[in-house]
Amino acid sequence: MRNYIRQNRIAILSVLAVAAYCFMVVSSFSGGWDSFRLGYQMGLQEPVSVEEQVEAVPGSTRHVNLRPERGYLDFPSDVLNFKDNSMLKARTRLIYVALPQDFDRPREVVVLDFLHGVLMFGFFIILIVLPVKFTRLVMSVKKEVIFHRKNINRTRVIGVLLILVYLFTVLSSNINFRINQILFSIPDYSISKSYTGATLLVAGIAVLIMAEILSKGLDMKSEQELTI
Amino acid sequence: MPIIVNLDVMMARRKISLNELSERVEITPANLSVLKTGKAKAIRFSTLEAICRELECQPGDILEFREDLNE
Description:
Low-confidence stretches of chain A: none
CATH topology of chain B: 434 Repressor (Amino-terminal Domain)
Strand order of the largest sheet of chain A: 4-1-5
Largest interface: A-B, 5 and 12 residues
Low-confidence stretches of chain B: none
Number of helices of chain A: 5
Mean pLDDT of chain A: 86
Largest sheet of chain B: 2 strands, antiparallel
Distance between the termini of chain B: 6 Å
CATH class of chain B: Mainly Alpha
Helix content of chain A: 55-70%
Strand order of the largest sheet of chain B: 1-2
Oligomer: heterodimer
Order of helices and strands of chain B: EHHHHHE
Structural class of chain A: alpha+beta
Strand content of chain B: 5-15%
Number of strands of chain A: 5
Number of strands of chain B: 2
Order of helices and strands of chain A: HHEEEEHHEH
Mean pLDDT of chain B: 89
């Protein structure tokens, strides 16, 4: 009975983990999907020449995190409220900037963009490896093979990958920040870094601790098996 | 490990085979072989008692401590 409950618990947790992972991946692509959909609709609306289409499409877009120069109690921008035609004080934290196709990037930005591309490639590889390792771990646990050297290695790899994802995110944020500092200067605002929560770092360390607990469990199991 | 298992010596003295001893002490031959070859990490008092009874010996005849074999 106890074994049955444990099996069910493992199955439910596995399904939840896979659903959470899928949600994470889908939500990270949802922004891109919106842009794609809007562009598609715009293209359907009225036929324009190829030249006009090329001119309309930006060379690249950048997201720029902003902070009011005089602190977060300052609202340096104005917005018109159509409800009562009043002007309201506002501040923005993030803007998307479209750069023209013939925009000449400074050399430092080209190098940083390349580094960012390498980081994103690494991130993409991790996004593939992580679920594979996790699935193998879950399958192994489901077969009641828990304290096994392979499972410990898989858990360690998952922990290290989670920490790597965190490091990649921090590095990516810093590279973006540096590029934005080189390219832009917005009145009343200063360029800021995007917020990178430490959830993945904490999760990675927790998984590594779990791997060490599994390792200790394996030692105890082998001792138990070799007690005659 | 500095603990040496002299089970094979005692078995030779008593002229008893591994299978016969395993039947008498009710331990599988595989487990008794692990004990005999010194691969075991620990031995239960109940196992030691059964072996000593069957081989008519003392625990010290089966287990020996040698400091020079320390890891």
